[in-house]
């Protein structure tokens, strides 16, 4: 989705490279740059690898960057590498790297599922929904509300939510006073809507802009 959006916008090659070819990963503190390259070279041609180190002690912080020659190679690395690497697209270099690293590290050391990838397999937490009010506070339905502090287009949101099978329609609206984004999404089954909410609530699209996804009452019997 990121690659398609970038190319459609007619962005220059250097901007596309900066935003779409560099990934940020969590690694063992024993890794060298050669270890990092060895573990990620299978996904494409690597331009460079770097490990973030403590400026005082010179010890690895357990974080690193890998830059590929093509956006498609970076995308493949994010999708296919081991989930323990917590791979995501890196912030452009002109943004504060230290604040990005701190936010990334603190968010990925929590126990809740995070990250900007959509694994093909359903994670165990998704399979363990219990029918009790302490776990599920909101009514379930086939319809979702999506809110964003940044506007988005119909095509962008459709491409994102169509990754979950069963998408019936996507209606994007914009608040003229706040310029924020709002959309209503509907799936053919409640199961698809539940999975889409589970995977895309909190998803950063575009990077740095977190989506809020909640259920909307569609008049159906949520007990099903």
Automatic annotation (TrEMBL):
PROSITE patterns: RRM (PS50102)
Alphabetical list of CDD domains matching this protein: RRM2_RBM45 (cd12367), RRM3_RBM45 (cd12368)
Pfam families associated with the record: RRM_1
Organism name: Hemiprocne comata
Residue span, RRM domain: 21-95
Signal peptide: none
Molecular function in Gene Ontology: RNA binding
Family matches, as PANTHER family: RNA BINDING PROTEIN
Alphabetical keyword list: Repeat, RNA-binding
Coiled coil: none
Keyword flag Protease: no
Organism lineage string: Eukaryota, Metazoa, Chordata, Craniata, Vertebrata
Keyword Repeat annotated: yes
Name the record gives this protein: RBM45 protein
């Amino acid at each position: 989705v990121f690659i398609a959006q970038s190319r459609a916008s007619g962005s220059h090659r250097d901007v596309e490279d900066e935003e779409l070819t560099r990934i940020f990963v969590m690694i063992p503190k024993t890794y060298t740059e050669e270890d990092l390259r060895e573990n990620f070279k299978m996904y494409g041609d690597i331009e460079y690898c770097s490990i973030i180190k403590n400026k005082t002690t010179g010890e690895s912080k357990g974080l690193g960057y890998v830059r590929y020659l093509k956006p498609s190679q970076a995308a493949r690395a994010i999708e296919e590498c081991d989930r323990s690497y917590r791979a995501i697209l890196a912030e452009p270099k002109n943004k504060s790297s230290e604040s990005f690293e701190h936010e990334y590290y603190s968010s990925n050391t929590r126990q809740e599922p995070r990250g900007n990838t959509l694994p093909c397999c359903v994670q165990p937490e998704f399979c363990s929904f219990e029918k009790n009010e302490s776990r599920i506070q909101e009514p379930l339905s086939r319809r979702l509300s999506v809110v964003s502090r940044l506007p988005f287009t119909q095509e962008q949101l459709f491409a994102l939510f169509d990754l979950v099978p069963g998408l019936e329609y996507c209606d994007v609206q914009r608040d003229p006073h706040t310029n924020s984004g709002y959309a209503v999404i509907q799936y053919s089954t409640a199961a698809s809507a539940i999975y889409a909410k589970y995977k895309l609530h909190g998803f950063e699209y575009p990077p740095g802009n977190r989506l809020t996804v909640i259920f909307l009452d569609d008049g159906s019997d949520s007990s099903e």
